[in-house]
């Protein structure tokens, strides 16, 4: 979590509250880190961190959107910012698909 806070601090985004959600709570077996956060302006963030060796493709993007819907139901809240922090190779179609659905994809994490 320290890496996450320093990453966002370098982007001039300060959080007053960060909580980790275990994927098992959302009935998922994916190896992904999920965080919900509130910044100092009271904007809500849903942050998904993917760290894998294989390429992140369009099918993974669909799975991510389904996981986000489960997160919204679990927290009973609609998030203002949806972010994917990824360190693995990213398919351009998956990136475009996520951006069209209101996601911010950051490849410069880690």
What does this structure look like?
- The chain has 110 residues and is of the alpha/beta class.
- Helix content is 33%, strand content 28%.
- The chain is built from three helices and five strands, in the order αβββαβαβ.
- The chain has helices at 2-10, 58-75, 92-100; strands spanning 15-21, 33-39, 44-50, 81-86, 103-106.
- The chain has a five-stranded mixed β-sheet with strand order 1-2-3-4-5.
- Strand 4, helix 3 and strand 5 (103-106) form a beta-alpha-beta unit.
- Helix 2 packs parallel to helix 3.
- The longest helix has 18 residues, at 58-75.
- The protein is globular and about 35 Å long.
- The protein starts with a helix and ends with a strand.
- The mean pLDDT is 91.
Q: Could you give a quick summary of the protein structure above?
A:
33% of the residues lie in helices and 28% in strands. The chain has 110 residues and is an alpha/beta fold.
Strand portion: 25-35%
Provide the succession of SSEs.
HEEEHEHE
Structural class: alpha/beta
Alpha-carbon distance between the termini?
A: 12 Å
| Radius of gyration from the alpha-carbon trace, in angstroms | 13 Å
Major sheet characteristics: 5 strands, mixed
Brief descriptors of the model:
5 strands, 5-stranded mixed beta sheet, globular, single chain, about 110 residues
SSE diagram, text form:
Layout: H1 2-10, E1 15-21, E2 33-39, E3 44-50, H2 58-75, E4 81-86, H3 92-100, E5 103-106
Parallel strand pairs: 3-4, 4-5
Antiparallel strand pairs: 1-2, 2-3
């Amino acid at each position: 979590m320290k890496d996450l806070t320093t990453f966002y601090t370098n982007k001039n985004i300060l959080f007053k509250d960060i909580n980790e959600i275990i994927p098992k709570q959302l009935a998922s077996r994916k190896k992904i880190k999920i965080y919900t956060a509130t910044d100092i302006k009271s904007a809500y963030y849903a942050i998904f961190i993917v760290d894998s060796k294989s390429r992140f493709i369009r099918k993974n993007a669909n799975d991510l959107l389904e996981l986000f819907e489960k997160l919204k139901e679990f927290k009973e809240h609609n998030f203002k910012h949806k972010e994917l922090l990824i360190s693995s190779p990213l398919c351009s179609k998956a990136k475009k698909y996520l951006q069209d659905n209101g996601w911010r994809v950051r490849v410069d994490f880690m």
